[in-house]
Structure formats: C-alpha cells, structure tokens
Amino acid sequence: MKAPPFQYHRPQTREELGALLASLDNAKIVAGGQSLMPMLNLRVLAPDHLIDINRIPELAGIRETVDGIEIGAMSRQADVLSSPIIRNQLPLLARALEHVGHIQTRSRGTIGGSCCHLDPSAEQPAICAALDAEFIATGPNGRRVIAAADWFHGLLQSALDDQEFLEALRFKPWAKGHGYGFAEYARRHGDFAIAGAAALLEVDGTSQITRAALVVFGVESSPRRLHKAEAGLIGQMIREVAVAPIVDAARALDPMEDAHVTADYRRHLAGVLIGRALRDTCSILERSQ
Ligand code: FAD
Q1: What are phi and psi of 70, to 5 degrees?
Q2: From the CB of 33, is ligand 1 less than 6 Å away?
Q3: CA-to-CA distance for 261 and 126, rounded, in angstroms?
Q4: Angle at the Cα of 80 from the Cα atoms of 74 and 84, rounded to 5 degrees
Q5: Whole-number mean pLDDT of the chain?
Q6: Architecture of domain 179-288
C-alpha cells in the first residue's frame, strides 16, 4: 500500500523545526524513515504533515563533552557503530548495534528515531536504559533533559510531548576496562529480536563487583532494568557470581504475548539471555584481571 496524503516540510534549522511542531496539528517527524514509512504505507499512521529533519546538520554528530558523550538524534546507526569514540567508551552500544537490522537500514536509520519509535525489542533504547542515558528534548519551553528512567512511557511511547523533538542523547561512559555482555534471540540475523538482554559490571582491584547494570528487552513493552538483582551483585567476587538469582529476576517479569511467541517462551528466553549476557561479562572481566 502507499502512504495516505500528507503535506511535506523540510526545515533547515532547529528553530524552523520547533516552529513547525508548535504550529502544525497531526504532524510527524521523519528521520531515517525505517520505521515510520512502513507504518504510513500500512496506514497504521496517517499524519497530515510530515516534517523531514534530514537537512538539519546540527542534529547529527558524536561529540565528547564535559558532561559525557553526546550523540545527535539524527546520527545514523551505521555512523554510531563505526565511531571510534563509541567503540572505545561505549562498547556495549557498538556491540548491540551490530544486531540492528542490516547495513542498508543502519545507513539510513538513526539512533534518535529508534529511541523515539521505541519498538519493545529495539536494541538501542535498551542500551540507553542500561547506560542510564539522558535524552535531550527541545520544545516550545526550551530544552529539557530526561533521564532514561523517565523516558519509557509504555508501548511505542516516549516522554516527548507533541511539540518536542529529540535533539541528542548523552551518556556517561563506564570506567575503562568495565565488563559488558549482550545476548539476543532473533529468528534471522537482522530481524527484530524476539527478546534480548545486556549486562555491565565494574570491579575493584580485588575483582569484587562495585557496579552493575542489567537490562532485559523485548519481554515487556519497554526495556526493564533489574535493579534489585543488580544490587545483589555488588560485593560478589567476579569468579563466584551467583547467576541463578539473576535468571530468576528476569523470569519474574511480566512478558508480552504476541503472534511470534507465547509469554511463557518469552519468560524462558529472558532468563536464558540475561544469564548468557552476565556470563559473557564475567568472562571478559576474568580475562582482563
Ligand atoms: P523514523 O522511522 O524516521 O521515525 C521513527 C519514529 O520516531 C517516528 O514516530 C518519528 O516521528 C520519530 N522520530 C524520529 N526522530 C525523531 C526526533 N529526533 N525527535 C522526535 N521524534 C523523532 N530496529 C531495531 O532496533 N532492531 C532491528 O533489528 C531492526 N531491524 C530492522 C529491519 C528492517 C528491514 C527495517 C526496515 C527496520 C529495522 N529496524 C530495527 C528499525 C530501524 O532501526 C529504524 O531505523 C528505527 O526503528 C527508527 O529510526 P529512523 O531514524 O528510521 O526513524
């Protein structure tokens, strides 16, 4: 099918974008178009106005700032994946991006689009949750910084309001040499994952865990951090990590049921994948000790 009729706008600056969002009703931003255009063609959405943000240069780019690493919302997934800054300082994000779609979709698709579309099994929003990213939104009342814990408002729903756009994401890198692990199950490489998990650990000089982050995605409508299980890891020795309680915590989530898999199978996957991600993390750290 083809998209329903819409008026097309192509702002050249953030200010023009802000003015269009403030003045138009039933408008949608199009970034890489890799999620939005299929939804228009399937008539899942029928915006009256499409605002193309591909010609606003300041919305793209990866920069190190005093507040951490800032990735412009319009940064193409392929550019984020190949960035030396990301590979060195946010290696978990680079690892996850290898699983996102295909080179063709990654060369158009943007990190901001994925984090605004919020498919439950999208990898980038899940890694933002794991890394406690900050989302920098701009609207009629200026800029606001939204913590990852406040970004996810349910299925395909971010914290942005209609007249706001996502300008950038900001990450505070973990300590050099931290451990990370990523696991997902998709029917074919490049397909959306059925479910996935990621883990991050920092240890002190005695190989005792000092910091942990665990996230499961594609299981509930938004990525879920396992905060209680993370707290249980603090103080454990990397060689003696108790994985079973972490697997139980993942299995205690309230999985979605859909045409792809049952809730029970998703629950099983959540346990298997977080266990795999955590073991990978521990082995990276053991090898580096
Ligand atoms: P668009 O499709 O342009 O927009 C998506 C939504 O975000 C729209 O609602 C739009 O209004 C909004 N939006 C975009 N940018 C902004 C902004 N700056 N401010 C406010 N709102 C904004 N994704 C995965 O995570 N994993 C996969 O395995 C995967 N596989 C794929 C396979 C195929 C064949 C295809 C076509 C897509 C796949 N995707 C996958 C989706 C892909 O990663 C999309 O690029 C991503 O979901 C959306 O990014 P986009 O830039 O294309 O956004």
Answers
A1: -110, 130
A2: yes
A3: 20
A4: 140
A5: 97
A6: 2-Layer Sandwich (3.30)
Q: 199 near 278, Cβ under 8 Å?
A: yes
In testing the pocket of ligand 1, which one of 50, 56, 102, 114 has its CB within 8 Å of the most ligand atoms? Answer: 114
* CATH 3.30.43 placement within the chain: 7-51
Q: What whole-number distance in Å separates Cα of residue 2 and Cα of residue 194? A: 28
What is the number of H-type helices and E-type strands within the chain? Answer: 12, 12
Specify the pTM. 0.97
CB within 8 Å of 251: residues ≥ 6 apart = 267, 268, 270, 271
Output the pLDDT for position 228: 97
- CATH 3.30.390.50 intervals, the chain: 179-288
Question: With a 6 A CB cut-off, is 203 part of the ligand 1 pocket?
Answer: no
- In this predicted structure, the answer to whether residue 89 has a pLDDT above a threshold of 80 is yes
All CATH 3.30.465.10 domain ranges in the chain, comma separated:
62-171
The closest of 69, 76, 79 to 53, measured between CA atoms, is 76
Class of domain 62-171: alpha beta
Answer CATH for 7-51 from 1.10.3210, 3.40.50, 1.10.10, 3.30.43? 3.30.43
